[in-house]
Amino acid sequence: MALTAGLVASAAFAVTFVPLAGDLSVVTSSDRQKAVVTVANGGALAAQFCVSFAEPLDQPISIEAKGHVIYVPWPIESLPPGAQRGGAEPIAQTLTVVPANGPALALVAKGVKPIHDVEKVIVISSVSREDWAGPNNTRLAPDAAACLSADEQAGTHS
User: Fold this and answer.
1) 135 φ, ψ to 5°?
2) Which residues pair with 2 in a beta bridge?
3) Phi, psi values for residue 44, rounded to 5°
4) Which of 9, 60, 113, 129 could cysteine-pair with 89, CB 3.0–4.6 Å?
């Protein structure tokens, strides 16, 4: 899988694709300009992503299925790889949603190549991973409604 140079902040960092499998949920806002993508395992949150689309979607996206997402963490030079942090995690501006039964979606910023071969590519203005490590190996995230709010921008929740 090849990536455009825009996905890597520095040549010193290797690109790491992170797949997260479980129960997928993708829901768009009523104005179809934002979406929240969640992955859960056994009813427990594994990951939550907030997405803002470059243009309102023609049709809403509604996925509730087993599957996985693939993303690329954005390296932060001041943090060693794997360091725990609270709040939103910057990621490369590409997120692939692969339901077990159904077509995969690539949510990518303009000019960014999808990280997985998919039938449908949707141009986004931003995506961020919004969950963080909580107590007792749990994952915490803001309410999904915060991702869908017209007043919020993805990547600003903590």
Assistant:
1) -70, 155
2) none
3) -95, 135
4) 129
Let me know: does 69 contact 37? Beta carbons within 8 Å.
yes
For residue 75, give Cα distances in angstroms to 7, 11, 157.
10, 11, 19
Q: CA 2, CA 22: separation in Å to the nearest integer?
A: 26
| Burial status of residue 54 (CB atoms within 10 A of its CB: 0-12, 13-18, 19 or more) | middle
Hey, which residues does 38 pair with through a beta bridge? 25, 48
Q: For 17-45, what is each residue's pLDDT tens digit?
A: 999 999 999 999 999 999 999 999 999 99
Can you give the pTM of this predicted structure?
0.82
- What three-state secondary structure class fits 32? coil
**How far apart are alpha carbons 107 and 129 in whole angstroms?**
13
Q: How far is CA 137 from the centre of its chain?
A: 20
The three-class DSSP label of residue 76 is: coil
